[in-house]
Amino acid sequence: MRLSVENYLTLRRNLNRISDLEKFQVPRGVMHAILMQKKVESVKRKYHLFSGRTKEILQYWNERKRLPEWLTLTPVLKVRLLLKGMDFSTKQINKALRNPNELDEELAKLVYDAVSKDFIYSPIAAKLQWTLGKIGERIIENKLKSLGIEFKTEKELRMQKTPDFFFEEPLDFLGRRIRWIESKALFADLKTYDLYFRKQISKYQELFGDGLVVFWRGSLTGLPVSDGSEFECDLKNKLLEMKLYVSKSDKVEGDPLKLAEKFIEEYISQDVFPYNSKVIRILRNMGFKILQNSPNKEA
Question: pTM for the complete prediction?
Answer without folding.
Answer: 0.94
